[in-house]
Specification:
Elements (H helix, E strand, L loop, with lengths): L10 H4 L13 E8 L2 E8 L2 E5 L9 E7 L4 E3 L7 E5 L3 H6 L9 E5 L4 E2 L4 E4 L6 E3 L1 E7 L8 H4 L3 E8 L2 E2 H7 L12 E9 L7 E6 L2 E7 L7 H11 L7 E3 L7 E2 L5 E6 L5 E7 L2
Parallel strand pairs: 6-17, 8-14, 9-20
Antiparallel strand pairs: 1-2, 1-5, 1-14, 2-3, 3-4, 6-7, 10-13, 10-18, 11-12, 11-17, 12-14, 15-16, 15-19, 19-20
Length: about 280
């Protein structure tokens, strides 16, 4: 259907036509799903989900079972042991935050417990604080990675997804570090799917709040490329299959409020949609 404002998703229409035939050279799409109480990983092919025996980044072995995408609940597509974030990776965002470039990527960790699936509700921990949205390209690692060169870094990438780095600015300013202010439960929406075999070097990245465009840029505007980020991170720590790296946000970040609807898009991928409420 193309863009229809906020996310009343009909995925048989929203998924780009090129996903409808899958081969070794085409983009492939994977995710996590629930049918009743059962969770499983699957490969999305058009309006169908082909159920897999294992996590797709470990082994792509279909069970032979196929279900309609419209019948399942979209769950988290990832279960990372580490959730790595990158800051100050777009020049315009550095300017709006009144910061200066560091000369190297700025990385920190977010708690994996902060992950939130597509259609989940972001629960603002402190309603009196300014809490901002940030849309980001997320990179999923596919192989154990340590001290990899920039030239070989992309060989260690399994795929890509959409993420948001929800941030409590009051805590970020008072604590002078990023871990707690960005790690509250629900503060890392991710999904809806992971896409492989795709060039992400120059894709449009957009966030809409209640239908209005708030962030819009291209991934080619990143200061440090995906390969440079993966290589840099691997010099300090061992990245494991399934780990997720958020690559930074462009300008236009702004506050969220209970009742908001957020829609994050990268390229022609199905959008990541989340509502906003208060933590209880």
């Amino acid at each position: 259907m193309g863009h229809s404002g906020l996310c009343g998703l009909s995925f048989d229409c929203e998924i780009p036509r090129r996903l409808r035939g899958v081969n070794d050279n085409a983009m492939r799409t994977f995710g996590g799903f629930k049918l009743g109480e059962e969770f499983f990983y699957g490969e999305v092919r058009g309006d169908e989900v082909h159920v897999l025996e294992n996590a797709y980044w470990i082994d792509i072995e279909p069970t032979g079972e196929v279900t309609k995408l419209s019948l399942v609940q979209i769950a988290l597509p990832v279960t990372p042991s580490k959730l790595v974030a990158v800051g100050l990776n777009y020049a315009d965002h550095i300017a709006e935050m009144k910061r200066t470039p560091l000369g190297t990527p700025l990385i920190w960790f977010k708690a994996p417990s902060s992950l939130l699936p597509h259609n989940g509700t972001i629960a603002i921990a402190f309603p009196e604080h300014q809490t901002d949205f940030e849309v980001e390209l997320a990179v999923m690692i596919g192989a154990t990675t340590k001290n990899v060169s920039v030239e070989h870094a992309l060989e260690h990438v399994y795929g890509y997804t959409i993420a948001e780095d929800i941030s409590d600015r009051d805590l970020q300013k008072s604590e002078k570090q990023f871990a707690r202010c960005k790690s509250f439960d629900t503060y890392t929406p991710v999904g809806p799917f992971v896409h492989t075999e795709i060039d992400t070097s120059d894709l449009e990245i957009t966030l809409r709040q209640n239908g209005a465009v708030k962030q819009q840029a291209r991934t080619s505007q990143m200061i440090y490329s995906v390969a440079e980020i993966v290589s840099f991170a691997s010099q300090s720590l061992t990245l494991a299959p399934g780990d997720l790296i958020l690559t930074g946000t462009p300008s236009g970040v702004g506050p969220i409020r209970a009742g908001d609807e957020l829609e994050a898009r990268i390229g022609e991928w199905p959008p990541l949609c989340n509502s906003v409420g208060f933590a209880r």
